[in-house]
Amino acid sequence: MNKTTETSFCSRPAALFACGRQSIRLPVPVYIRSSASVVGSREKQGPLGELFDFAGEDDLFGCDTWEDAESSLQRDALHLALQKAGLHSTDIRYLFAGDLLGQSIATSFGLMQYERPLFGLYGACSTCGLSLTLASLAVSGSFADFAACVTSSHFASAEKEFRFPLGYGNQRPLSASWTVTGSGAFILANAPSGHDRAMITGLTPGKIIDYGLRDSMNMGACMAPAAADTIRQHFEDFGTSPDDYDKIVTGDLGKVGQRVLLDLLQTSGIDLGERHMDCGIEIYDCKKQDTHAGGSGCGCSASVLSAFLLKQLSEKKWKRILFVPTGALLSKTSYNEGQSVPGIAHALLLEAI
Amino acid sequence: MNKTTETSFCSRPAALFACGRQSIRLPVPVYIRSSASVVGSREKQGPLGELFDFAGEDDLFGCDTWEDAESSLQRDALHLALQKAGLHSTDIRYLFAGDLLGQSIATSFGLMQYERPLFGLYGACSTCGLSLTLASLAVSGSFADFAACVTSSHFASAEKEFRFPLGYGNQRPLSASWTVTGSGAFILANAPSGHDRAMITGLTPGKIIDYGLRDSMNMGACMAPAAADTIRQHFEDFGTSPDDYDKIVTGDLGKVGQRVLLDLLQTSGIDLGERHMDCGIEIYDCKKQDTHAGGSGCGCSASVLSAFLLKQLSEKKWKRILFVPTGALLSKTSYNEGQSVPGIAHALLLEAI
């Protein structure tokens, strides 16, 4: 991003931190003080395996049900993130959290023992972006000194929630993605500490975009139009282009969704090319690990952000990335009633400090 | 609230708008520019029937499924609220919305045609409070000029989601509440217009509170401890007592929950007495309408706030109320796995202009 685009960032009155049609340029940066990731065994075996903070051995994490296991992922991820930040849970003013399950039960049962005020969120697999966006408003707006964001997904609880319980031995087409068993937690702060991992400086919350697709086994294609819309809008609002970013990282489009995204943006004259990266593609070696199109779920972008993307930023290998978690707004009820699967994507501008 | 408590509102540094342990005193008030309520036939027949903006005749609202009907409630409520405010949907910078269904599908399919950036929320029946809280942060923090909050519930879609489809003819104990078929929409603005309905000046977001109750047919008792915790914390953070408010209005505790709330607060030396009101008790004539403990659902507090509470504030019959939507964090999965039903409640300080 050069000086010229820097100064022409916002077209609305400066008093309103609104930027362009849909974005926000934060009046003060939000510092990511610490983060943590907890994942399952398959994620541990993937290309990023060594980077995650903790991995379970049997994906039940010592619990009796998949849902309890997912709750334990959130509990452990937040515990680790607090520990790394040297903070106690009472230092966290507000929690922003969610998951993929009906009524977000992984969050309810995972985080209640922290006894902090909770904002419960649902944005399907985009919830990591949703939680970081809303927490950034709270922190940058001086409503909180510290906020924590936690999201998770679990392969087995998600299959039961959206498709079939694993015991049914359901067949999966190659366009299907593999829901990541994992959770990422992030501690956001309103002041720098000298050892923050990165900072959040801009936001482009997304709209629901529905191209009418109805295939719950091809989430990538359902979400790609929303990712394209948010990314395009982000460039317009901030007056930037792909060259201004080291990477543009979507949440969990997988290989099918990536192809759709790149094609859609090409028709708008935007070429992401090598700058595009997708957390779902990075987290597994799809051929060796039989995970088909790639990883997905709220835990996918969250664990990859914590383990890999923030590492690159904190080590200054990258200066600026656009992080775009993507969500498919599907439920088994709407799916069985013949509804389409609309998508949504929220973008965050992350910068090295 | 007298002058003394007014000036000793916040104990944290003024630079942070945090107030006490858990609350926020908004740096600039948020104006409720307009609101609208759409309800079903049973709500129309209740004591507040004449006050709602629109009521359907058969609760399907011309749709094929209960879920589509609930989506139409949200769509219509927002349409009416925009019309009353004299605004177009493109004037609304961000939507904050949710419902009770798995993956919040009433919101996804109800609001996508407005093509506005959406923050999807889940706080069970407290979602009206959650949406108004987060939208207030966005508006008061100068991140948006206009935001809209929309929540809904539908008796038939909720029974299917949480208990049994209506066709099963399930028996209901007297402690059961009746999920309100209804939606409320609110347009929040960052500047006064001279014809706003009320203003939001303070927030006390709530924690999850779990007393271990497991009865999905007694939501009032499950939520009352959370309401008590949030109300007690609000008084402590703002240095106020029940006498400082014309009413303290909970969302949907019903008659059983009201009794529990008043008893719990009594043990902390807080006597709400006649100042307590519950939207779930107000919306139906429970004896005549066979609605047992009272109304419940995200649509309950939202429609009663729009139709009745804001009317009282705008007509200056009340000067200041504490509005406390209450939620039971239940899903059929967690319930069938033997989990408890934790509660959450978010409080908003609403004042006449």
TrEMBL record, chains A, B:
Gene3D superfamilies tied to this protein: Stage V sporulation protein AD (3.40.47.40)
One Gene Ontology term of the molecular function aspect: acyltransferase activity
Source organism, top-level taxon: Bacteria
Name of the protein described by the UniProt record: Stage V sporulation protein AD
Organism encoding this protein: Gallintestinimicrobium propionicum
